[in-house]
Amino acid sequence: MKIALKQINIDMGLQEYEMLQGILKVDNGFTNPAYDLTYTEYKNWLQEVENHSKGIGLPDGWIGYTTYILYIDDIPVGYGRVRHSSDIYLETVVGAGNLGYGISKEYRGKGYGNILFQELLKKCKELGYNEIKCFPFKTNIATIKIMMKNGGKIIGDFKGEKHIILIPIK
After folding, report:
1. Which tens digit of pLDDT belongs to each residue from 35-52?
2. From CA 146, how far away is CA 95, in angstroms rounded?
3. What is the CB neighbour count within 10 angstroms for residue 83?
4. Kind and range of the H or E element at 109?
5. Can you tell me whether residue 91 is helix, strand or coil?
6. CB 157: neighbour CB atoms within 10 A?
7. The predicted structure's pLDDT at residue 61
8. E strands, 97-161, in order
9. What is the pLDDT of residue 170?
10. What torsion, rounded to 10 degrees, do the Cα atoms 139, 140, 146, 147 define?
């Protein structure tokens, strides 16, 4: 199996667009702004996301982030985002952590979520994180299992709906 994680860029095309349509606008708490966009809107979104990774055009109060697509044997199967730094407001008011990810519906149940999560952890390490926090919904059993399998520990509860999971970066 060939695994590749590529940063989103303006040159991505129809294959990536179609994969993104398999992840709902809000899917188990992970947001996918590309869902249900026209192809032209998607191309504009790619430029926006590429800019945000460079800190350009971020809405007020937003933290820079980088978005990646996971390819298995050259087929895009999911995508994720890593924030460039932590934020107390996001952690204490919004219940959002350092990374998020989603696997397109047709590729779920094949272990790709764990692969994507591990690849995103590598990106966290490159950014200098020693640990990260994630806030999965308590009903998102698959993601919780992935986080625990990768060293996560439940350290708290967010508004009764989400676990707060601390994951060391090795």
Report:
1. 999 999 999 999 999 999
2. 19
3. 21
4. none
5. helix
6. 12
7. 80
8. 99-103, 131-134, 153-158
9. 86
10. -70
6 CB neighbour count, 10 Å cutoff = 13
Contact status, residue 49 vs residue 8, Cβ threshold 8 Å:
yes
Whether the CB-CB separation of 127 and 133 falls below 8 Å is answered with: no
Residues in the chain: 170
Give the pLDDT confidence of 93-119 residue by residue, as tens digits: 888 999 999 999 999 999 999 999 999
Residue 138 DSSP label: T
Q: Nearest to residue 65, comparing CAs of 113, 97, 36? A: 97
Triad 96, 43, 104: Cα angle to 5° = 50
CB atoms within 10 A of CB 93: 11
pLDDT in tens, 65-88: 999 999 999 999 999 999 999 888
Backbone angles phi, psi at 27, to 5 degrees: -125, 105
Band of pLDDT at residue 89, cut at 50, 70 and 90: confident
* String of DSSP letters for 33-73: TTTT--HHHHHHHHHHHHHHHTT-SPPTTPPPEEEEEEEET
For 18-39, what is the mean pLDDT? 95
The Cα–Cα gap between 154 and 160 comes to 13
The alpha carbons of the chain give a radius of gyration, in whole angstroms, of 15
Question: Which residue in the block uniquely carries the two structure tokens 């397109």?
Answer: 104
